[in-house]
Amino acid sequence: MANRDQPAGHPGDKPKAEPPSTFGDGSPLAMLVGPFYTAPTAATLVGVDVKDLPLDGMLRTVTSDSVDLYPTMQFNDGGLDPLIAQLVTLLTATEADMSAWAVALWLASPLADLDGSSVVAWLRDRCDPDIVFALARQVAWVWRDGRQHLEQQDPASARQQPGNED
Description:
The chain has 166 residues and is mainly alpha-helical. It has seven helices and five strands; from the N terminus they run αβαββββααααα. The strands form two sheets. Strands 1-3-2 form a three-stranded antiparallel beta sheet. The chain has a two-stranded antiparallel sheet with strand order 4-5. Helix 3 (82-92) packs parallel to helix 6. The termini are far apart.
């Protein structure tokens, strides 16, 4: 009798994922943040049903035509990268409230504080994660306080600021 929780194939085999796609409209933002997995592939990689996505700490970006995409940079051979997931949680927390695209851009962009490396590359090169988490706390603090300052000046314009699309 087949185990419903196991994918077809050999017991313990990880389901095959579709190759990542660039998706999106070819915008510079999507090109920097991508490639992406679709929801079915992301679900397969972390072993859940599509309806259970996104998981806590999982970065889900939404295209202008309402397609859910999951940047591949947050996955490793074992599923969701735990350090990236912790950073996503920190940066998308209620008090920071960074959009998924803003978080993805921060994770993928070269940073002077990391000697020109991106957060993802820094962590994959096994460099000190404490430096990245200190930077993430600073970014969350600046993002939160900057939005609060804008809202105090003009609440309507603060809601229209880039990064507040989610």
